[in-house]
Amino acid sequence: MMVRTTIEINIPEDGMKITTLEKIIFKELWKAGKELLCKAFKGIEENVLAKEDVRKEGKRERWMLTRFGRIKFSRYKVFFKRERRYGFALDEKLGLPSNCEPTPSVREIAGNLCLAYPYRQAAFLLSKILGEQVNHRTIWRWIQEDGKTLKGHLKEKREEIFTNGEAPEEDGKEREIIVVEIDGTGVPSREGKGCWMEAKLGVMYTGKELVSKTAKHKRYILKEKQVYASLENVDEFGKSLFTVGENKLSLTRAKNMLVVGDGDPWIKGLIRDWLPGAVYQLDHFHLKRNISKLAHGDKKLAQKMLRLALGGKIDKLISLINTGYILGKFSEDEARTMTRYLNTNREGIWGSSAFKDRVEGKEVLVKGSGAVEKNIDIMIARRFKREGMKWSKEGASNLLALRVLYQDEADWRRFWNQQAA
User: Fold this and answer.
1) Distance in angstroms (rounded) separating the CA atoms of residues 102 and 69
2) 195 near 174, Cβ under 8 Å?
3) Is the whole model's pTM more than 0.70, yes or no?
């Protein structure tokens, strides 16, 4: 089947400015695109109906938002005799969802824009791209629907493992080590002034590769990097993180697993419940920051406490803190909080050292959570924590699901191809 159209433009003998010429040609290309689509629809429908055992029930009109703007076309509603059902043969052949105005490619463009821009700005840009006015509430609705679809897919995989007891999908590779860095950050909530929701993020990788051997400052890229983030509670987040890790990196087949966290108790609980066998490493930056905060600007005291902590003398450090409380240097709440923090994380201060004779590439044996901090900034802070922003939990959760998907180009492409299937 061949479809054709002709484009003609009138150019004055004395010419015209390049900007004007571009606009004229682009406008005609849009018109030609619409015309070709309608001709292609007609030809495809004729071919399909010629092969199918159907009874025509009359034509119905439909609007569609395409890469060339909005078009209106007619197609037959038919009765499929073998299947004994009604439908639109053309819609099914093209993979057009019912009651959905945009084509999947337009929806993908909108998704790309909303990952980086607020909805009003994304709607403005999409309107410019398509030459048609698109309302920001419409784009918001698309994002919510696509986010829910993504979360539904992950929930199905999660339930296959934890409810049905099925073996998870994985690539079967046995990796030397998998590092998992976990952290959380607040997202401003619409529930009221000063209200926050916690977004949790985990980044998983199998090694680090030096970008340049001659650069003044060493910079590494993460090997086989996988990121998962959500606003789920700790239990659901742990299940989801495990599911993603198992699907992408065969988590349970890894010879060694190192989990890095900032010392929050929920991270230790997640490791216990969903990443059994992993070795825990406390982020030294957070350890130093908490000690410095406790010392209230007393650098000598902070250095002394840090030496005790890094030297593994936790009981002696706790005794020093209790003495400081008695002498009035620390409040009761400060002493109790720091004591709890140290007891929770004592075995993780030098956790990564357990692998020093078992793993090649010592750069992967990190003592800080720089990778997860960077990804929290990129994936969450830059989109969800801009000035004046407030979110509903569902709205933020659905958009975050798309931002997670975008981290893997193959998964992103696969999702939109499925939407067009």
Assistant:
1) 10
2) no
3) yes
In this predicted structure, what is the pLDDT of residue 270? Answer: 95
Contact 188, 175 (CB under 8 A): no
> Which two three-digit tokens encode residue 397?
């959760």
CA distance 132 to 115: 21
Both structure tokens of 49? 């109906």
Q: Can you give the length of the chain in residues? A: 421
Kind of pairing between the strands at 85-87 and 69-80: antiparallel
Q: Which helix (H) or strand (E) holds 29?
A: helix 18-51
Encoded tokens for 52: 């199918």
Residue reference for tokens 């590769």: 209
* Cβ partners under 8 Å of residue 374, min gap 6: none
DSSP-assigned letters across all residues of 313-348: -HHHHHHHHHHHHHTTSS-HHHHHHHHHHHHHHGGG
Total Cβ atoms within 10 A of residue 329: 17
Instruction: Spell out a b/e string for 96-109, using b for 16 or more CB atoms within 10 Å of the CB, else e.
Output: beeeebbbbebbbb
- pLDDT per residue over 171-203, tens digit each? 889 999 999 999 999 999 998 888 999 999 999
Label residues 176-206 b or e (16+ Cβ within 10 Å = b).
ebbbbbbbbbebbbeeeeeeebebbbbbbbb
Distance of CA 32 to the CA centre of its chain: 37
Structure tokens at 35: 């015309």
Burial 396-405 (b: 16+ CB within 10 A, else e): bbbbbbbbbb
Judge whether 187 and 391 are in contact, CB under 8 Å: yes
C-alpha to C-alpha distance for 143 and 242, rounded to whole angstroms: 25
- Which amino acid belongs to residue 202? G
Q: Do residues 294 and 321 lie in contact, with contact meaning Cβ atoms separated by under 8 Å?
A: yes
Q: What are the structural domain ranges in the chain?
A: 1-101, 103-167+393-421, 178-390
Query: Is 52 in contact with 89 (CB distance < 8 Å)?
Result: yes
In 3D space, the residue among 240, 206, 241 whose CA is nearest the CA of residue 224 turns out to be 206
What secondary structure letter does DSSP report for 168?
Answer: P
Whether 198 contacts 241, CB under 8 Å = no
Residues with Cβ within 8 Å of 99's Cβ and at least 6 positions away in sequence, in order, are none
Q: Identify the band that residue 37 occupies on the pLDDT scale cut at 50, 70 and 90.
A: very high
Quote the CA–CA distance of 37 and 39 in Å, as a whole number: 5
